[in-house]
Specification:
The chain is mainly α. It has 3 domains: 2-89 and 398-530, no CATH class; 91-251 and 258-334, no CATH class; 337-390. The chain has 27 helices and 7 strands.
Length: 532
Amino acid sequence: MTAYRMPSTIKNLVRIRPGRVWRGMFLWFVASICSVLLAACATSKPEPTVTAQANTDPYVMVNRLTWGATQTAVEELSRQGLAQYLNAQLRPQSRTMPVVLQDQIDSMTIEKTPLLELVQQLDKMRKDADALTLDEAKKTAQQAYQQELSRLQREAATRHLLRALYSPKQVQEQMTWFWLNHFSVHQGKGNVRAMLGDYEENAIRVHALGNFRDLLGAVVTHPAMLRYLDNDQNAVGRINENFARELLELHTLGVNGGYAQRDVQELARVLTGHGINISPSSPALKKELQAYYLRRGLYEFNPARHDFGDKVLLGKPLTGRGAEALKESLDRLSQHPSTAAFISRKLAVYWLADEPPLALVNQMAKEFSQSKGDIAAVLKVLFTAPEFAAASGKKFKDPMRFVLSSVRLAYDQKAVLNVGPMLNWLNRMGEPLYGRVSPDGYPLLGNAWDSAGQMATRFEIAKAIGSGSAGLFKVDGPQAQERPAFPQLSNALYYQAIEKTLTPSTRKALEDAASPQEWGTFLLSSPEMMYR
């Protein structure tokens, strides 16, 4: 903290409230601009509060059910009523993105080229590069291959951010991020960057509000996951337990879910033979194995690599053989009470609080079991619980939510032309899309994201957005220029809804702002904007 040279009064405040580093940083940031604002904020309460009357008003509920409140979304909830709005979010019908954004998405390679064809093209590119004999030519070709992989990763990240910002199906978009984080894969493993777009679209998003067993099956057999956790190397006689361990510990039962090392070993045997085939041809198999062979795009179950021996999982024998053994295993894991409890608690941590009420988690787990893993039904138990309405303004925003909520609030439905600054902000704050190296996903607890360095970066981002200098409307190309688009923060939504949720010190800081740019910076960097 000393690197920031904060005034002693702020240091004392941080020392007294170590879990509230953001408060000290906020005061320091304001002090660096105007000493009058420091005096106003220094007397504020240690934590933002929202009045009980505001807990279920449209602004507060939209702010929690979407990636961040906008005037458009608040008006929609007000028009429909909370019950209808919530049902529409949990069971979304086909609703389109703004045309200009959908056109941008439709033009992407990951949208136009099937995964198998895309990976085959890249594999040929890699092999052609490796075959070159001249060092300089080989280096150039290998760099071009890596650049193409990175371009495809950026397409997937850009599409994700555009949908998060503008899709009317906001709960689905948040659950897409949640499951991408839960079933995390890292972009740096092999050629996973080429698979990210398909993994997100066809394994995660389509099942994000559907059935957990369907989601689990789609993830477990997707090439991105199989490659990331080395299951494409898992074969009879050469067992690799990586995927089996994470499937039990991180994806289903949880670390204390009641499984043993023997279950990891048995599940690893079940997973043998499930891998990837980039070539257009199928392997030559013995006649007695041919009926077991499966191929769907890049995914392949090769029975010649599978352990057909008898297996016991979680104390019960598996009757299925070949790929059927995996289906039976996933049925067992998805229906296990530990999975219901583990997934329900993780959902409650993400949406509600770092320490969610046990009684509510138990209600969610009961619904999970009774509905056989209906994700939307479990979320409805959470969203309609009294605890959900009572917890507004308490959940600290992670970097993803801070960035998205700030841009949404500043620009509503005005389409940004360049998400590059947003991707850079997420990188700087340590939460880039597809960037978690370990398979556990990014932490969901607030204290992972409230360090002094984190907050200093947030204030820089708030200044860039609030002053209109973020570069979100900079058009790339030979005649690159930034189209003027000043953020609309001091609008009807602020005066009708946001203002009443602010503490007196934050209002005083805003009143004393010397310019609209400074006003926007103060609002986005205020303590209240760090919570949802």
